[in-house]
Specification:
By secondary structure, the protein is α+β, with helices and mostly antiparallel strands. It has helices at residues 15-33, 47-54, 59-64, 85-94, 97-100, 139-155, 173-186, 193-201, 228-243, 288-291, 306-315, 336-348, 362-371, 382-387, 405-414; strands spanning 37-38, 44-46, 67-69, 77-80, 104-113, 125-134, 160-166, 249-250, 262-270, 278-284, 299-305, 326-330, 353-355, 376-380, 390-394, 399-403. The strands form three sheets. The chain has an eight-stranded mixed β-sheet. A five-stranded mixed β-sheet has the order 13-12-14-15-16, with helices on both faces. The protein has a three-stranded antiparallel β-sheet with strand order 2-4-3. The structure holds adenosine-5'-triphosphate and magnesium ion (MG). The site of adenosine-5'-triphosphate has 17 residues, from strand 6, strand 10, strand 11 and helix 11.
């Protein structure tokens, strides 16, 4: 086949798509319960939006963005969104909310695009479900998000670990940054080229040097550099989360690759994913709204990597293959109108129902019913119709009996395997 999909882009069919939807449905339900409102933002934005917010030296902006020049008059440089936060902040400021109604709790979802090396759990188009809370500088909002994420992971029945850290703020981070630069220079020979580049450009990312995790063991830790305010904030977050019975570990080496984060950073890893195990990542970004031209409003948020979360849900064996509870077989075209009526009755009773073609042989249709895993077949023929009944066939027991539609619905409903 010539017109195949692009590398790193996926088609999700059946069970795989369903696992993604399951994650999205559960996330949406929980966010609703936390009174978080939806925001929908464009997939295409000005390239500058991302360089301004994420910082020129982030991996995303440096090498991963899909950009092109639009053919409009101004030849605008545009980019497919690599993440949701900058667009949400732009929309928030553009709507004037930073001045009129700064406290906002918003969630977004949809595809993101990053041109990175594809592998399991890492794609060029992937999906995020994210939350941004504006106007809440207090530690209670950090804790609330961690509690909510814990609830979602438990709801999805995932084996998971939550890691938290604090990376300080504009006041205390410069000293930590400088200590990392010094450390990087002193350990030059142990670092690879990628990390040599980070020393001056983005020293926090030195802690992400993945080639040999041991190297960073001697690196300075952000927690040792926190100012009193940042330390008190972090202590309160930990106390509140502990009081809510949420399990977490402090990972003093966790940093964020994007420049706008301050104070609390957190990640959730799930089992069964191999190297790409981070399914949720987020943190506080108190300076971002102002950087983007808005008022000085605090922010905190996170994004769920829906693709990875879905893989974890599948690995944990928590998805059931979708199959109809019943299929309706009209014996001949003249029975199709009645078959439609019967199918609607089953659906109204809350049963997943598939209507088969009237133009194939009964034997072939029964074969197909077994193949798609349904247990019951309802056959509608001329004689039965005249008598006001249908034939209900139980594929597991190979029995068949003439019953009313209501009786058939009850039998299917009461079956343990439907
Ligand atoms: P990583 O270190 O894995 O590259 P990141 O720091 O780039 O992650 P974020 O920008 O924080 O990731 O995005 C939040 C989440 O989105 C990640 O934890 C992950 O679950 C998911 N994610 C990020 N990039 C991809 C991708 N290319 N494919 C699939 N999921 C992704
Ligand atoms: Mg990345």
């Amino acid at each position: 086949m010539e017109l195949t999909r692009l590398r790193g882009f996926r088609d999700l069919i059946g069970a795989d798509a369903r696992a993604m939807s399951l994650v999205e449905e559960r996330a949406r339900a929980i966010f609703d319960r936390y009174s978080i409102k939806e925001i929908r933002i464009p997939v295409l934005e000005r390239t500058q939006l991302y360089s301004r917010s994420s910082g020129e030296t982030s991996d995303v902006v440096e090498k991963q963005m899909y950009t092109f020049t639009d053919r409009d008059e101004g030849e605008t440089a545009v980019a497919l969104r690599p993440e949701g936060t900058p667009g949400v902040v732009r929309a928030y400021v553009e709507a004037g909310l930073d001045r009129t109604d700064p406290e906002q709790r918003l969630f977004y979802s949809g595809p993101m695009f990053r041109r990175e090396r594809p592998q399991k759990g890492r794609y060029r188009q992937f999906y995020q479900f994210g939350v941004e809370i504006f106007g809440r500088p207090d530690a209670a909002s950090d804790a609330e998000l961690l509690i909510m994420i814990d609830e979602l992971c438990r709801d999805l029945k995932l084996p998971f670990t939550m890691e938290v850290n604090s990376i300080g703020d504009q006041k205390c981070r410069p000293a930590f940054r400088e200590a990392l630069v010094q450390w990087g220079r002193a350990h030059w020979d142990e670092l690879d080229d990628d990390c040599h580049n980070r020393i001056d450009r983005n020293p926090l990312r030195l802690l992400d040097c993945k080639r040999d995790a041991k190297v960073t063991e001697s690196a300075p830790k952000s927690l040792d550099y926190l100012c009193d305010e940042c330390r008190a904030h972090f202590d309160t977050v930990k106390e509140l989360v502990t009081a809510a019975n949420v399990q977490y570990v402090v990972n003093p080496r966790m940093v964020r690759g994007l420049d706008y984060y301050t104070r609390t950073a957190f990640e959730v890893m799930a089992g069964g994913l191999g190297a790409q195990s981070t399914v949720v990542a987020g943190g506080r970004y108190d300076g971002l709204v102002e950087t983007m031209g808005g008022a000085a409003v605090a922010g905190i948020g996170f994004a769920i990597g829906v693709d990875r979360m879905a893989l974890a849900v599948e690995a944990a064996g928590k998805t059931q293959p979708k199959k109809p509870a019943v299929v309706i077989v009209p014996l001949g075209k003249t029975m199709t109108p009645q078959a439609n009526v019967v199918a609607q009755e089953f659906r109204s009773a809350g049963l997943d129902t598939e209507l088969f073609s009237p133009e194939r042989k009964l034997k072939a249709l029964l074969g197909r019913a077994s193949k798609i895993g349904t247990e019951f077949v309802v056959i509608i023929g001329e004689d039965e119709n005249a008598r006001g009944v249908v034939q209900l066939r139980d594929l597991k027991q190979s029995g068949q009996q003439a019953v009313t539609v209501q009786e058939a619905i009850e039998s299917v409903k009461n079956s343990p395997n439907k």
